Amino acid sequence: MTLPLGSRELGEQAGLLADAADHLRRERAASYAEADLLPGTGFTGLSADAALRALTTAAGGWTPTILALSRAAEVLRLAASLQLDLEAVLSRLTVLAGPRLDVSAPVVLLLGWLHASGELLDAMTATSLLALRHGDGASVDPPAGWGEDRAAELQAAHDLYYDAASPRVRELADAHGLTLLQLPEVGFVAAAADPPTLAASTHLITHVPGVGSLDPGSWDSHVSQARDMAAAVDGEGGGVGVVWLGYQAPPTVLHGGDSFPARRGAVDLASFQHQLGLRFPDAARTVVGYSYGSVVVGYSAHPRTGGLSADDVVFVGSPGTGARHASELQLLSQDPRVHAVTVAGDPISLATGPLAGVHGVDPTSPGFGANVWEIDAGVMGDHSWYFRAGPDSTSAFLDAFGKEVGPRP
Q1: Between 20 and 30 A from 276 (CA), which of 79, 111, 205, 226?
Q2: Which residues contact 28 (CB under 8 A, 6 or more apart)?
Q3: Residue 404 phi/psi, 5° resolution?
Q4: Is the dihedral of CA 75, 81, 83, 86 positive or negative?
Q5: pLDDT by residue (tens digit) across 70-90?
Q6: What is the pLDDT of residues 355-366, one digit of tens each?
Q7: How far apart are alpha carbons 303 and 205 in whole angstroms?
Q8: What is the CATH number of domain 150-405?
Q9: What is the average pLDDT score of the chain?
Q10: Spatial separation of the C-alpha atoms in residues 305 and 327, rounded to whole Å
Q11: Cα–Cα distance, 31 to 71 (Å, whole number)
Q12: What secondary structure letter does DSSP report for 143?
């Protein structure tokens, strides 16, 4: 039996589309650079102004194509990940059933279910790609100011997302001065800074919250946590926190034992970090997985996603990462570092351990291989302790965050 799709082919096509989008980004940047040089040549007047407008408009016109190619690559990456799971089930079933593969009634039923699942995935992938092809993104005019500089481009993208956002996301953006970076089907993805500050950032901290984080009532706290971590890394403003809430986070602790939301969200997180690396190639990148968010981060750094574009990964109050050892995590950095911290008294410790757990090995266990942060002896906390200030208005976690993540050799 064969399945309708192939994970390898899907992954290859996703890579080709992503490469094409990257190529157009470079061409667009080159055109904007040429436009910046034009006034310095001495070529002035009405003809020069017309040439400048034509050059920037033509370059800006590539933006919808770039967005469409990037989104199509994300669709195919997700399909490849899901297809790989179906192929793994089929492989195990083939080994277990052996010669009875086509005659055992239960096995035949399972084969039928696998094939139907493959057909459904094929149809959903095709529908998503057709929606991109026929969507309004193909005829969007470049926003005013697009490409003049990085801040203007970020502002223009924010404005597009803002217009399409829900009232709650708009309220959040207005209240905290956010720059919207993506508008996923659920949640939001935004930097806790205005476009000029984000454009000048030297360290980006992506914060991935956990169980219950889709509750709009919790969003203000996620933004504050991201901003506090950025401030701990660089008090002079070079650090910027990003809240990545682009996955179907489990609503309650009872649902937190299911790894599927993390596996699915991991593909989107890896794609987002890849794009972040392309847009901010000179900035350090840290990804923080808090609680169930650490499961998402762990799977996003799995080789099947192509690796995670991050210099540092921090697992905070983690129930496991889906990995047995830090060496299984593929970070796309010249100097990758994996950190972990769980405060004494955090009940999350009951869900994991040095050998196994709900989502795998405890990343703070000695055998995992992470850089485990030492919190002052005698400190006891609960699962929400990490971002809570003490009597002296300081947070031991944020202090450790600044010391361990901030400095780079």
Answers
A1: 79
A2: 59, 60, 62, 63, 66, 147
A3: -85, -35
A4: negative
A5: 778 878 877 887 787 777 777
A6: 887 888 999 999
A7: 22
A8: 3.40.50
A9: 80
A10: 15
A11: 23
A12: P
